[in-house]
Amino acid sequence: MAIAVDNWDELAPWWRREATTDLVYREDIEPMLERLTPKDPGTVVELGCGEGQWLRWLSTMGVQTFGCDWSLQLLTHAASSAPVVCAELPGLSWLQDGSVDNALSVFVLDLIADVGEFFTETIRVVRAGGSLIVVINHPGFTAPGSGPLVDVDGEVLWRWGSYLEDGSSLQPAGDRSVVFHHRSIAKLLTAAATAGWALQAVEERALGAAAIERDPGYVGQEGIPRFFGARWVK
What we know:
Blueprint: E1 3-4, H1 8-21, H2 24-36, E2 43-47, H3 53-60, E3 64-69, H4 72-78, E4 84-86, E5 100-106, H5 115-125, E6 126-137, H6 139-142, E7 147-150, E8 156-159, E9 167-173, E10 176-182, H7 185-195, E11 198-205, H8 209-214, E12 227-233
Parallel strand pairs: 1-10, 2-3, 2-5, 3-4, 5-6
Antiparallel strand pairs: 6-12, 7-8, 9-10, 11-12
């Protein structure tokens, strides 16, 4: 059985392999970020930057960026791409009010238990008119008890599990596992609105054709949302 961990230094070698070898990040996630990120983003802080793949992506476009993460091992690699800070989210006390133009978070929000603090802290540190861009696993995917079902006629359906209830589940991470925190889309959007964020754009995306071709186990899931992205403005 996989061992649950909350120290990402223990997962750093696995995550570096994952980030550099999983083509889904380039095929499916990068296009989402291209559509959600403002055209002239100014200064961007990436929250939970890991080994720096999105810092590098932003830097290639000439964006002034820096990141934070709670894994020192991952930050040693991210530091070659941009300035970095070791910090545990959702707290952002090391940033002043209105000190960044935009904030970016990719596959991090569903690892954070306190979603309310995430939204209140990000709106505090982003300047007026700035944006928050978030990409996560789709809440329908992270709901405890959710998963694919095959109908009697061979159609692949999705079991919602306890989608409407807040909850958590263990998800594999190499030979370990991590806790995914589930909230419905309604609760995520309400938490953001309560903090003062105004929703500008939402994306829901299934696994792309290339990923499904590589893994026939996903055949039939072409219409099932796997990723969720949003952009809010302050």
